[in-house]
Design goal:
Helix content is about 30%, strand content about 25%. The chain is of the alpha/beta class and about 500 residues long. The longest helix is centred in the first third of the chain and has 27 residues, at about 85-110. The relative contact order is 0.12. The structure holds 1-thioethanesulfonic acid. 1-thioethanesulfonic acid (COM) binds near residues 16, 41, 44, 99 and 321.
Length: about 500
């Protein structure tokens, strides 16, 4: 059967990019059709952003309870029976279903977008078959997302090996987990599982969080060390061993073979775009399996666009949604282009969050020479601070970095672990070139800071904004403290002792 109607575009996949692209098209007066087999909103509420947000909250609560237990006025809390599997179960039962309903309601009812539910088969660039019926579109937009990249090693299919996708499905808490890959997914997962009494070891072939500012990395990993999360860098995983289920991971480290006993493995070495359904169309595929697109999200086949993760990195919700919007505009006859500059990055590392945009200090020094740092904490710190204690003579003792409840708690009860914020300024132009934060959340500010970086925001302009004190990132008031200087000096450079967080 052939559907008579011709759509302006068939959005093949109703994830973040397809849903937002179709919505934008509809808002512009166009006729979109979304083809979706599983869920509108893609993997977000199933196992990615929304789930991670929820699970991070659970992990934060567990870690904070552990920190505060028995201190000052807090009662002693017994955390021996807490369960990551129980937290995941709640999300499966309530969160996944509630989010699915919300996505459906918003898309179909509120926005009035047509969705055809079922497995789609691309017939050609103007026709898609779903449940035996052919739907026709003037354009085709591929938004089929990505999946976890799996290493080709023995044991990879053993029960107990999981990826981000299986995380909400855990039914029993592991005792020991090995995480293969220390990028932002792996490091986030380590921080999420550890609070649940799970012994976590991260094995990274190269460098963990390689593109993050060194101070931010150090802050996170120093905290990992205190929490007993082990990190190995430069380690090559060779095999996952086990009889019928995961029992250990074997790796080469410094020329020696090491074996890590475990009952769960989380693989987080990267993402692979799901470009396969589009291959018969003749679209160009890149080395990472991504569909190659131009700045306007066009593929090499006229009338075929690719949006979201299937078009390759950066793998970031905002990029997925924006690619959808740009494709919709171009289908409508505009000449819209993606702008990949100043894309912020964010990781949940419960009970903290890390956020970054622009250049790291190292990159900034390479580009601008002597940069100025505006940051807290900046002074000497006690070497091994104890919770609830005052250390005379240490400038950062009483300085809360951020301003939400847990940040101050982390300061007083948590050994000065309340965070670090850092702005990097080119002193000649007085413009910011990078912002970095790890603490009790600053991501909302970073959405806007990324734009300010792009327009060349200066210390003097920042000093004129209105802070709501105490705030999560402190950039306004810190900038005002130095903006009176003719020759910008900022605060003295960071003084964290050289960190030794790695296992050797
Ligand atoms: C969020 C997914 S659950 S989407 O980007 O809103 O579609």
């Amino acid at each position: 059967m052939i559907e008579r109607k011709e759509y302006d575009a068939i959005w093949f996949g109703g994830g973040a990019s397809g849903r937002f692209g179709a919505a934008f098209m509809k808002a512009m007066g166009g006729k979109p059709l979304i083809v979706e087999e599983h869920h509108l909103g893609g993997e977000c509420h199933v196992c990615r952003c929304a789930f991670e947000n929820f699970f991070s909250d659970q992990a934060s609560m567990a870690e904070l309870m552990r920190l505060y237990s028995g201190k000052s006025w807090y009662p002693k809390i017994d955390l021996s029976h807490i369960s990551a599997a129980k937290a995941a179960e709640l999300y499966r039962k309530v969160g996944q279903r509630a989010f699915a309903d919300t996505m459906k309601h918003q898309t179909e009812k509120q926005l009035g977008i047509e969705v055809v539910w079922g497995e789609g088969k691309i017939i050609d660039k103007n026709a898609v078959e779903v449940n035996g019926k052919i739907y026709r579109g003037k354009n085709l937009v591929i938004g089929t997302g990505s999946r976890a990249t799996m290493p080709n090693i023995p044991g990879i299919n053993l029960p107990g090996v999981m990826t981000y996708k299986d995380h909400p499905e855990i039914r029993k808490d592991p005792k020991k987990m090995v995480i293969i890959g220390g990028g932002k997914i792996g490091i986030g997962k380590a921080a999420m599982f550890a609070p649940f009494n799970i012994e976590v070891t991260v094995l990274e072939k190269y460098t963990c969080l390689p593109i993050w500012d060194r101070d931010i990395r150090n802050f996170i990993f120093r905290d990992f060390k205190r929490r007993g999360i082990k990190i190995y860098e430069g380690i090559d995983v060779k095999e996952i061993k086990g009889k019928g289920k995961v029992e250990s991971v074997v790796a080469k480290f410094n020329g020696e073979t090491m074996e890590f006993p475990c009952d769960a493995v989380m693989v987080s070495i990267g993402l692979t775009p799901n470009s396969e359904p589009a291959i018969p169309l003749g679209v160009k595929i890149g080395k990472g399996n991504e569909i190659i697109i131009d700045e306007g999200c066009r593929t090499n086949v006229p009338g075929v666009y690719a949006v979201g993760d299937v078009a390759g990195p950066p793998y970031f919700m905002a990029i997925a949604r924006k690619r959808g919007m740009i494709a919709a505009k171009n289908i409508a006859g505009e000449d819209a282009k993606m702008d990949y500059s100043y894309v912020p990055d964010h990781i949940y590392v419960p009970p903290l969050e890390a956020t970054s945009v622009g250049l790291t200090e190292a990159e900034a020094r390479e580009k601008y020479g002597d940069v100025v740092l505006i940051q807290v904490p900046w002074g000497p710190k006690p070497k091994d601070p104890k919770p609830e204690e005052y250390y005379p003579g240490f400038e950062n003792q009483g300085l809360p970095v951020c301003g939400r409840m847990h940040t101050l708690n982390l300061l007083f009860y948590g050994q000065n672990r309340n965070g670090l914020v850092k702005a990097i300024v080119d002193p000649k132009s007085r413009k910011y070139v990078g912002f970095h934060s790890v603490g009790d959340g600053a991501k909302t500010a970073f959405q806007y800071l990324s734009y300010l970086l792009k327009i060349g925001w200066t210390v003097d302009q920042m000093a004129n904004l209105h802070e709501i004190f105490l705030n999560a990132e402190h950039f306004i008031q810190l900038s005002r403290l130095v903006a009176g200087q003719k020759e910008l000096k900022g605060f003295a450079a960071q003084v964290y002792l050289e960190e030794d967080y790695l296992c050797r």
